[in-house]
Amino acid sequence: MKARDLGIPFEGATGKNNSITDVDGVLVGHSTIVEGEGDLIVGKGPIRTGVTAILPCGKNLNEVFAGYFAYNGNGEMTGSAWIEESGQLKGPICITNTHSVGVVRDAVIEWIFKEGLAKQRIFWSLSIVAETYDGLLNDINGFHVTKKHAFESLDSAKSGFVTEGNVGGGTGMICHQFKGGIGTSSRVIDEKHGGYSVGVLVQANYGLREHLTIAGVPVGMEMKNDCKPKFKFEIKPNQENGSIIAIIATNAPLLPIQLKRLAKRVPAGLARVGGYGGNYSGDIFLAFSTANIFEDGANKEEKIRTVTALDNKHISSLFKAVAEATEEAIINALINAETMKGINGNIVYSLPHDMLKEVMKKYNRLNNA
């Protein structure tokens, strides 16, 4: 389901799947682990976690231009230093929980090697793995994510429809004190501005209830006393403890500095929903373009590469697309996520669709109401 299916109005035209996979060549896969119930026993569970994989240009090691931006840096994205330095991305991007970054990073490198994707004689990889914290629902210190789960997310990566909500890395995540997780959306730019596609995928795990805003409606204030999470141990109610990862894909021909500028527009969409980058929030964003693909192992003797790039005076429509798609991706994560009970009987409720529609109707912001 998409938020639009409930009649929630958003700006902009989407691609066929309203997903990051509307950018040709981009693949997405998940591995989801949901096991056990009851009190937390570290190492045994309950387990509510997983891995999500994004492959920028299929199952190969071709390089693309990329740009990175940390809005608030209380988080991790491995390999980002080399993206900052070189402006290039090579290989998959994975998202998981905070304490599983290392094993997933190692698994990505092993997967590349085992799949025979590295064509050069000396192979090295600075794999991209990002995280958000799921320790309120998941036995995060039990280290239940293994190489097998990372391999599963990579092997299952495909184009087309992307499952959202309680899946992959988003399995145990919380957003605006409702159940959160994976969400995605896309935009297709008007032909007069190039007709390019932009896709955003988020792992949404941030935010306070009272700040939640949907299509301009103060939903969080209207529902501040409804469906409140229940935790066995007290959680500070007015402190934002979560994070959000956003991956942006486009087929527009952009240089690394332009892609960094694209990544910097994620906060414009985040702010529309009610995120502000709190001190304890890891808000880290990565953008890449599939327009200039450098085939792995090819033309090693070539000293000069010819690339195409959009003139900056035509880039503003892409900025707007990123803001719009980020906003909608977050709401899609909320719409698709289901109520989850995790460690110690902690329970986080889904955003109730019927109640949401009533609030939107109250503000005359529901299509076909």
Folded structure, characterized:
With 369 residues, the chain is of the alpha+beta class. The protein has one domain (3-298, 305-359): L-amino peptidase D-ALA esterase/amidase, CATH 3.60.70.12. Helices cover 22% and strands 22% of the residues. It is built from 8 helices and 14 strands. It has helices at 80-86, 101-114, 147-155, 219-222, 256-263, 266-273, 316-336, 353-362, and strands at 27-35, 47-55, 63-73, 88-90, 93-97, 128-132, 174-175, 178-179, 181-188, 197-205, 243-250, 282-289, 340-341, 347-348. A 6-stranded mixed sheet has the order 4-3-12-11-10-9. The protein has a 4-stranded mixed sheet with strand order 1-2-5-6, with helices on one face. A two-stranded antiparallel sheet has the order 7-8. Helix 2 packs across helix 3 (147-155) and helix 6 packs across helix 7. The protein starts with 26 loop residues before the first strand and ends in a 7-residue tail after the last helix. The model has no long low-confidence stretch (mean pLDDT 95).
Describe the structure concisely for a colleague.
The protein has helices at 80-86, 101-114, 147-155, 219-222, 256-263, 266-273, 316-336, 353-362; strands spanning 27-35, 47-55, 63-73, 88-90, 93-97, 128-132, 174-175, 178-179, 181-188, 197-205, 243-250, 282-289, 340-341, 347-348. The chain is an alpha+beta fold and 369 residues long.
Which helices and strands appear, and what pairs or packs with what?
Blueprint: E1 27-35, E2 47-55, E3 63-73, H1 80-86, E4 88-90, E5 93-97, H2 101-114, E6 128-132, H3 147-155, E7 174-175, E8 178-179, E9 181-188, E10 197-205, H4 219-222, E11 243-250, H5 256-263, H6 266-273, E12 282-289, H7 316-336, E13 340-341, E14 347-348, H8 353-362
Parallel strand pairs: 5-6, 11-12
Antiparallel strand pairs: 1-2, 2-5, 3-4, 3-12, 7-8, 9-10, 10-11, 13-14
